[in-house]
Design brief:
Layout lengths: L2 H7 L1 H4 L4 H4 L2 H24 L6 H9 L2 H7 L19
Helix pairs in contact: 4-5
């Protein structure tokens, strides 16, 4: 998956991110890994068809899973406001 595709698909979300993050190659390396994982969950749901429950239960719960969370754990997101609230969230 190319960085240009990630930028195009997530253009709206990336508008709220400071350039110091979006110009960082490590930022996009982690983001690409996360998008690939989410795409895998989506395609897996389509392939399994009626064998799986609703989309929300099957796919979105996987996106919120430990595996996906571990993928983005090291992703630092600097917001345009400078508050960087996403980096200060602890679960």
């Amino acid at each position: 998956m190319d960085e240009a595709i990630i930028r195009k698909c997530l253009a709206l979300c990336l508008r709220a991110v400071h350039n110091s993050s979006t110009n960082n190659s490590e930022f996009f390396k982690i983001l690409k890994k996360f998008v690939r994982l989410c795409l895998f969950f989506h395609v897996q749901h389509i392939i399994n068809g009626d064998d799986k429950p609703r989309y929300f239960v099957d796919v979105l719960e996987k996106v919120k899973s430990r595996e996906a969370n571990e993928t983005t754990k090291e992703l630092l997101v600097h917001s345009l406001s400078g508050l960087n609230l996403a980096n200060d969230v602890t679960l």
